[in-house]
Design a protein that fits this description.
Helix content: 25-40%
Distance between the termini: 39 Å
Mean pLDDT: 90
Structural class: alpha/beta
Number of helices: 13
Number of domains: 2
Strand order of the largest sheet: 1-20-2-11-19-16-17-18-15-12
Strand content: 15-25%
CATH class of the largest domain: Alpha Beta
CATH topology of the largest domain: TIM Barrel
Number of strands: 20
């Protein structure tokens, strides 16, 4: 079945909008707003929907607050424009937006898709929202009425914005987006000043800021920053208002203090993970993952020597051993690479993932003795053990921590829990 991006993000909206998640003081018993029949546990009491087998995501607000405080400290108490793109780095864009909106250190939010901006508003977010991507003409009126601030970076920006401003009857807030060497988005710094000057002549736009994106190359970032500041200086000499300046994402917060400017624009660090060099960054700040990825044991079985696990039998038992089947796979965002050294936490013990991660299942080897049972909660990723922390897990598996977090399926329930 063909599912469009709009419909896909619509599913994400359901998973992260207020009213779709509840709070839970005991994280072993997740609450979901979804309804469902009770699941039967053989030989024991029935499982309510609060004890679902299917995977879910727990959000730890205390870790969000602590990470925000650390980012504020590192950036000299500068205001934070919180980047919550790509479904809030796995936490759910509406969920984290609603949680961070009341934090006095958060100036506003940034996203790259129009649907995410509207989702933040539907989640009750009142602070400014910057759209860092391009919008389609049919999206413009809804975004403008929602008070979204627009990034401008194309030669035809005036043709896109001015008719929209007239149609909604008010000036549109904008941020100039400059490409200073990353080569991905933004107006080239070489041509920026006359382009900015032309746009600024219109009374139908209101300049809120000017920003660039750094390539996170320690040797080149200072050069990018200098190019950016030169454009700003030249623009201001013409009398142009440039608004608040911003350049530093999470990596810049840690490694380029001269790039903190008027505000900082972190993403992953706000959610408790280090952006690029965890070894050095741990010495600078203490972050704990605000995300916990969980499921429950759906089957326990004993393998005999010669028995195999998974498609293609990539793992063969060489002795009698117990294994637990977990109803989570790469379609849920649990990586195929988990068989390269990932562990899962069941009770107080860590167990290796073996065989192959399929779309909906994976297998943990739980040892020579029966130590787990059907329905036991399982932590796949989170702050509970060092090997489960996203940064450590990513390093062990040879993948990006951004991939681990952003690929968590947006359709899974997001549940607020205490630490």
């Amino acid at each position: 079945m063909d599912i469009s991006r709009r419909r896909f993000l619509g599913a994400a909206a359901l998973a992260s909008a207020p009213g779709f998640f509840e709070t839970s003081e005991k994280s072993d018993h997740p609450k979901s707003a979804r309804t469902g029949e009770e699941l039967e546990r053989p030989g024991g009491p029935s499982l309510s929907r609060r004890e679902r087998f299917d995977p879910w995501v727990e959000i730890i607000p205390g870790h969000l607050r602590a990470a925000t405080a650390e980012v504020r400290r590192l950036s000299g108490d500068r205001p934070i424009l919180a980047v919550v793109k790509n479904n809030g780095y796995g936490l759910g864009v509406g969920t984290v937006g609603a949680l961070l909106d009341g934090d006095p250190g958060i100036l506003g939010f940034a996203v790259v898709k129009g649907e995410e901006a509207l989702l933040l508003r539907s989640a009750g977010v009142r602070k400014p929202i910057l759209l860092m991507g391009l919008f389609a003409p049919e999206e413009g009126p809804d975004l403008a009425r929602a008070g979204v601030e627009f990034s401008v970076f194309t030669p035809d920006a005036a043709g896109r914005l001015l008719p929209l401003a007239r149609s909604v009857g008010r000036p549109l807030p904008i941020h100039f987006y400059l490409d200073t060497g990353m080569g991905r988005m933004g107006m080239s710094y070489r041509h920026a000043v006359p382009w900015m000057t032309e746009l600024a002549r219109s009374p139908e736009i209101r300049i809120q800021g000017t920003f660039t994106e750094l390539g996170e190359d320690r040797a080149f970032d200072p050069e990018q920053l200098q190019r950016f500041l030169t454009v700003v200086r030249d623009a201001r000499r013409t009398g142009l208002e440039t608004g608040r300046l911003h350049a530093a994402a999470s990596n810049g917060v840690f490694h380029l203090p001269e790039g903190h400017l008027d505000l900082v624009r972190p993403g992953i660090a706000l959610f408790g993970s280090y952006p690029s060099d965890p070894k050095s960054e741990r010495r600078m700040a203490t972050l704990r993952s605000a995300l916990r990825f969980r499921t429950r044991v759906v089957r326990v079985s004993r393998l005999e020597p010669g028995d195999g696990v998974g498609y293609g039998r990539p793992w063969i038992a060489d002795r009698p051993t117990w294994v637990a089947t977990l109803p989570v796979g790469h379609a849920d965002g649990y990586p195929r690479e988990a068989v390269n050294g990932a562990e899962v936490l069941i009770g107080e013990n860590l167990y290796p993932v073996i065989g192959a991660v399929s779309a909906s299942h994976c297998i943990a080897e739980v040892g020579d003795h029966l130590t787990v049972r059907l329905g036991d909660p399982v932590t796949l990723m989170g702050p509970d053990r060092p090997s489960l922390e996203p940064n450590n897990m990513a390093e062990r598996l040879g993948v990006s921590v951004y991939d681990l977090l952003m690929h968590v399926n947006p359709g899974l329930p997001r549940i607020l829990v205490s630490d």
